[in-house]
């Protein structure tokens, strides 16, 4: 039965125990007598993350063995019709719970703990009971391990009514703002800050992070946020999002612009809240060459799974990632575009151990630092539709969710990932070169391989797509018709798995083949070899394209250093230094100079030289010795 209250009876006193006692609550048994405390942690761990100072800790008075109830005074449900509370403690739906009830004790909604002392907010939709008198009751009938429950901050009629689209979600960022330095998380409606280098610029006017223009044809991916690879990330305080411990699903749409080298073996984080060393939290990220992974910490172990090579991400293309932690089924499963691509086992009793660190989108919780300044292990590209579900979704649900997103795209086709580097982000920068060529964004060194083809001049250069520092080098590319005005083109060559250059595409040169088509010769970086430097060759995919946008590496190296090269009496090569080819043609023969260090036969460095090779076809080269140095 329900009873309608008078207006004078609508307030709920002491809903958050800030009186320091149980005023306004009726107690039975011993479980909650003397249980109001201002302790921030439980002695053997941290933290409750209570609201304000005081809260009701069911273990404080009688431990796990005590039983009893705590019942609020009656209140009238007004406002939005939502009732919420912070709940934690043991997980036992039958004997250990907080409940919203009618005055005669009929349970309308209830929630148990998650075998975790850290509070999470539970929200009950009671709109059908607006104007009625209700109560909140905390019940402890459990006596074994985790036989206690905790409560804090009961809210009546103030939380917003749920968006049906957010049902079952702990958090959802859709990056729909299109401007500004914050993004609103859809479940809590909290605005989370976006870090970006030019939010507070020093030598140019302030400017917003790199929002993508909205386009209805892009469906749910309209208006994504571009993460620049070194200065863009979203932060949420550790306690602000309450994560389930007994199963969750993390998903995101991502379009990587390039892949990091993977310093310290850490991935470029898409979304994470983890401390791997402490075996706590979760992390979804992208490793070298697009091999993405998911890890979760249970306190006693870190469980991680990486997708196989065939499920690696492609640079420049949207992909939908879903990671499911399903301890009830003893599994972690990874899904790419709605299809399962990897799985690992976990103990069926495993539970997420929360990490007391911020939840971050786009940046690793513990990134490697290079040059004493720049954090790496950061995502470079577009991120959208980040969701954390309160449960382990079934494979069918993951597939259905992906298909639902695809149906929002024009023609059911995944949209193009628009993330070209835009020079306008530096508008007004007093130190930006206005005449001399520089990269559109981020790092540039050693312009090389200038060549003319079909009336256009081509310039290549050493380029780091991830930030303004030397690291993870690829070949940038620009074209001009007058050597003054340059047009940026996509990266010509990038470190690629299973290529001759998995770890770097370093300096080189250009030449013309026997048909007058340009070829690129470059220093191929491969850290699994010694030396890790050799000469690779690349050809344009479409020689009729005057922009020469797309290039393909030859499958094998064309020159490699050997330790026994003849460099003159009493000398030997410094094995391990072999780079920067320069190539030209005379008659029917191509010549290649390759830089190398020189030592005496007893190992004393005496400088460097240029090793000379010759070829009749650009792929098969013969060593001819160092140039005559007389």
Discrete helix count: 1
User: What is the CA–CA distance across the termini?
Assistant: 107 Å
Query: Gyration radius, to the nearest Å?
Result: 31 Å
How large a portion of the residues is in β-strands, by DSSP E? 35-45%
Overall 3D shape: elongated
Short structural summary:
With 630 residues, the protein is mainly β. It is built from one helix and 42 strands.
Q: What does it look like?
A:
- The chain is mainly beta.
- Strand 13 and strand 14 form a beta hairpin.
Observed structural traits:
630 residues; 8-stranded antiparallel β-sheet; mainly beta; disordered N terminus; 43% strand; 42 strands; 1 helix; 2% helix
Draw up the topology in text.
Layout: E1 25-29, E2 36-37, E3 55-57, E4 68-72, E5 75-76, E6 82-89, E7 96-102, E8 107-111, E9 116-125, E10 133-140, E11 149-156, E12 169-173, E13 182-184, E14 191-195, E15 210-211, E16 225-228, E17 233-236, E18 248-256, E19 268-275, E20 280-286, E21 292-298, E22 302-306, E23 319-326, E24 331-336, E25 339-345, E26 359-361, E27 369-370, E28 374-375, E29 380-389, H1 395-406, E30 443-453, E31 456-464, E32 474-480, E33 486-493, E34 504-512, E35 518-525, E36 533-540, E37 551-553, E38 559-560, E39 571-586, E40 589-600, E41 605-615, E42 621-625
Antiparallel strand pairs: 1-4, 2-3, 3-11, 4-10, 5-10, 6-9, 6-11, 7-8, 7-10, 12-29, 13-14, 14-17, 15-16, 16-29, 17-26, 18-23, 18-29, 19-20, 19-26, 20-21, 21-22, 23-24, 24-25, 27-28, 30-31, 31-32, 32-33, 34-35, 35-36, 36-37, 36-38, 39-40, 40-41, 41-42
